[in-house]
Each structure stands twice: as structure tokens, then as C-alpha cells.
Write a structure and sequence with these properties.
The chain is α/β, with parallel strands linked by helices. The protein has 13 helices and nine strands. Strands 1, 2, 3, 4, 5, 6, 7, 8 and 9 form a nine-stranded mixed β-sheet that branches. The N and C termini lie far apart (47 Å).
């Protein structure tokens, strides 16, 4: 039997210092009801026991392939996994998360039955205190314009972990994970995919468990200046690739979110931040798009008094980070 033709789903798991959570993740993958899996573990230069855990699981199950590399960030790990994938469909699973047993089988079957290029499912948000919230998608329609608008405003989250995508979508269109873009890389990839004429199907079931670590040391929780520049790079790409006539309001909202992220960056140059908000978020645009919210108020205040805006943000941080 040809090895490649027998694989229905390729799963890339980027791994970096997640020894505490990695076994639960891998057990959930090996417990999938869909057996025709290829599980690619990319150890991105872990300094804990994650690499050894990967090797141990590979010795238990031949469907697991392990690649060890020097630390290069999540995007480079994902790209290595993509380059070594052979399945009909492709998906990511983060190494500190886990999935329900029937996830890949049900998503794969839905993809085949509906001849879909992408299948989307719902997901759980799991917190350290045991809370579990469910994120349920709401689709007005599946037109390309609506999907892009929803992605730009985060109504359609960018996560690639709950989206099963035909591998040929990547291969035939030259889609790659750009090395060095480790914040917002999911949304960057999703928006590139939505520019293509894909058939997208939604399965209203909750399969993926996304672990939320509120005080962890991550790109999301403690953004650096480099993180901000990565997000700014993606924002510039959005502004250059989507028509302001069609997506003007959504692009403005996306840029507002970048500015809000900037308020969380320790050591941010006030001049650099001021240039960003002044150039990308002129006051007249708030009136044009009628965007009046607490978030927009804080960003407007940051144009006048950056320190005060940061103080207000810190007081309200928990409200936004749910």
C-alpha cells in the first residue's frame, strides 16, 4: 500500500517547552477514531523534556514522525511540518491543547461528503481554574466577501487548529508559514486562504480544546516590541491586499486592535506608537465608520496622553482578555 495515499489527515504539532501538557495532547491525537493519520511533531529547540516526550511517543506509534530543529518560532515549525505532510487534508494542533476523539473523523467525512476545501468546527476555551467556555461560530453566509469581513473583525477567529484544509490548497497556491511571523500567523494564513475560491463547510460541533493561560509568558500575554512589529507587518499586508471600498470599516477595526495591542507592549517607543496611530487611525475615520467603544476611546486618548491610556488599559485588561 502506498504510504501517502493511505493518509487522510496530516497533523502538525509545533512543540516548544510544553512538557507539562504535551502528553495530554498526544494521547488525544492517538485516541482519534480516524486512524489514517500522519502526526508530525516539530520540536522547535525545546529546553525541557518535550523533545524526549516526542521521541518516546514516536517509538510507540509509527504514525508519529518527529523533527528536531533549533528554535526558530512557531511559524518555522509549522512550515517544516507542512513541507513533510502527505495527507489529503492538513491541520494544526498546538502542543498544549487537546481534541475530542471524533474530531478528525467527523471533519474529514464532512469534507469528503461536501467536497469542501476547508471544514470549520467550534472549540472550547479551557482555563486553569477549570472553567470551560464554548465558542460557537455564527455564519451569515459563506460568500467570500462576508467571510473576509468576519475574519478581519475576528467574528471568524483565525485559528488553524479548528480548520481542516485540503493540503493542495497550500501546495498549489504556494501558501507558506512565513518565518519570523509568530504572532497573528493564523489569521495571516486564513486571510490568504480566503482570497482563494474555496468551498467552505461548517460543522456545528465543538471538538477542539484551546488552553488559556492568563499569566503565561507568551506572545499573547506579554507582547514585545518585536511582537508588535510582526502584527504591524500583517496589518500593512491587509491594508495593501483588501479594498478599502469594500472592507474599509473592517480594516479600520483590525488596525484599531493593533493599536490596542501596542498599549500592552512594555518599552514601546512613544514616538513609534504615535506615528502608527496618527498615520493609520486618523480621528476623522472614527466618525466616518462610527466606531465608538471603550477600546476606541482608549486609543484616541493614547494620541494625547500615552501614559494615561496605558494606565486605563491595565485597569481594564482582564475585561478584554477573556
Amino acid at each position: 500500500m502506498n504510504y501517502s495515499s493511505s493518509i487522510k489527515v496530516s497533523v502538525t504539532v509545533p512543540v516548544y517547552n510544553t512538557e507539562k501538557f504535551l502528553p495530554q495532547c498526544l494521547d488525544s491525537l492517538l485516541g482519534q477514531t480516524l486512524k489514517e493519520l500522519e502526526i508530525i511533531l516539530v520540536d522547535d529547540g525545546s529546553t525541557d523534556q518535550s523533545g524526549s516526550i516526542c521521541d518516546d511517543y514516536a517509538n510507540r506509534d509509527s504514525r508519529i514522525k518527529v523533527f528536531h530543529k533549533s528554535n526558530g518560532g512557531s511559524a518555522s515549525a509549522r512550515q517544516l511540518g507542512l513541507e513533510n505532510s502527505h495527507g489529503i487534508y492538513y491541520i494544526i494542533c498546538d502542543s498544549d491543547d487537546w481534541i475530542e476523539p471524533a474530531m478528525y473523523e467527523e471533519m474529514y467525512n464532512a469534507a469528503i461528503e461536501n467536497k469542501a476545501d476547508m471544514v470549520i468546527c467550534d472549540y472550547f476555551l479551557n482555563y486553569p481554574d477549570g472553567r470551560q467556555n464554548k465558542f460557537v461560530h455564527s455564519f451569515d453566509d459563506f460568500s467570500q466577501t462576508t467571510l473576509i469581513k468576519n475574519a478581519l473583525t475576528r467574528k471568524l477567529p483565525g485559528s488553524t487548529c479548528n480548520k481542516l484544509v485540503r493540503l493542495s490548497v497550500y501546495k498549489d497556491n504556494g501558501l507558506t508559514w512565513q518565518s519570523g511571523i509568530n504572532q497573528g500567523e493564523d489569521m495571516y494564513m486564513l486571510l490568504q486562504q480566503l482570497q482563494l475560491p474555496l468551498k467552505i463547510f461548517y460543522i456545528p460541533k465543538t471538538f477542539y480544546h484551546y488552553r488559556r493561560i492568563l499569566n503565561g509568558d507568551s506572545y499573547t500575554n506579554n507582547p514585545s516590541i518585536e511582537t508588535f512589529r510582526q502584527v504591524e507587518y500583517i496589518n500593512n499586508w491587509r491594508l495593501n491586499n483588501f479594498s478599502p471600498v469594500i472592507y474599509g470599516r473592517e480594516l479600520f477595526l483590525a488596525t484599531l486592535n493593533v493599536a490596542f495591542l501596542g498599549l500592552r507592549v512594555e518599552g514601546m517607543s512613544r514616538k513609534y506608537y504615535y506615528i502608527f496611530v496618527t498615520h493609520n487611525l486618523p480621528l476623522k475615520s472614527f466618525f466616518k465608520y462610527k466606531i465608538w467603544s471603550l477600546r476606541s476611546f482608549i486609543v484616541i486618548v493614547s494620541k494625547i496622553n500615552y501614559s494615561f491610556a496605558r494606565l486605563v488599559f491595565k485597569m481594564l485588561y482582564r475585561y478584554y482578555y477573556k
